[in-house]
Design brief:
alpha/beta; 8-stranded parallel sheet; 8 strands; about 35% helix; globular
Length: about 220
């Protein structure tokens, strides 16, 4: 089905492409609930992230967990690329080629407060699954751990909520530095590529955008 392309839609695509943050991303490790993945995708799109990484190392998990229903994330998945990995080494090797730092949400003695991190630098934020958190294997690849400060009785947040809180702190820091006005994280050629990609995707149904399997 072809969807009409209006001048208003074209202008919106241009604004979105101009604001995409080329040096900010999210990694989800063994996240079981597809609705959590859907919520993360929507938050990523809203703060200008154009791609995320989904790492599955558990045998019971697979691509079916990111084949999300229309109600959960189909709209966001149309505009945010999903890179799917089953190999930890390959996943972090590829991430390191594009992002300078990797920080994990993990409770440790040396964990930093979220609000102490410099999230305007080139960074990937790693979130573990709903029950076990980030694996020991993946922690070997991170530059540091962080926690979200809490003062309640139950000191835990749903994965999608934790991701949203973290990404909006990144948004706040980047907005203060003008990254959504004169965006230094994405060059002109990349902005033009994104605009062309969004224009092409506009013609497709949301469910037709499939994850990129990397290994």
């Amino acid at each position: 089905m072809m969807y009409p392309m209006t001048p208003e839609r074209t202008e919106k695509f241009k604004r979105v492409a101009d604001c995409r943050q080329g040096n900010l991303t999210v990694i989800l490790e063994n996240v079981h609930d597809p609705h959590n993945i859907g919520a993360v995708l929507r938050t990523c799109d809203s703060v200008g992230i154009h791609e995320i990484y989904i790492l599955y190392t558990e045998a019971a998990l697979g691509e079916k967990h990111i084949q999300l229903g229309k109600r959960s994330s189909a709209g966001a998945r149309k505009w945010v690329n999903v890179n799917h990995y089953t190999n930890i080494d390959q996943c972090f090797q590829d991430i390191r080629q594009k992002y300078d730092k990797v920080y994990a949400t993990h409770l440790s003695q040396d964990a930093s407060d979220l609000y102490e991190l410099n999230l305007s630098e080139s960074v990937a934020l790693l979130f573990g699954n709903e029950h076990d958190g980030v694996s020991e294997e993946s922690l070997k690849y991170v530059d540091g751990n962080f926690i979200i400060p809490q003062v309640g009785m139950v000191e835990s947040l749903n994965i999608s909520v934790a991701c949203a809180v973290s990404l909006y702190e990144a948004f706040r820091q980047r907005k203060l530095r003008g990254f959504y006005d004169e965006n230094p994280t994405t060059d002109i050629a990349e902005k033009e590529r994104l605009l062309s990609e969004y224009t092409d995707r506009h013609k497709k149904r949301p469910g037709s955008i499939t994850p990129k399997r990397k290994g």
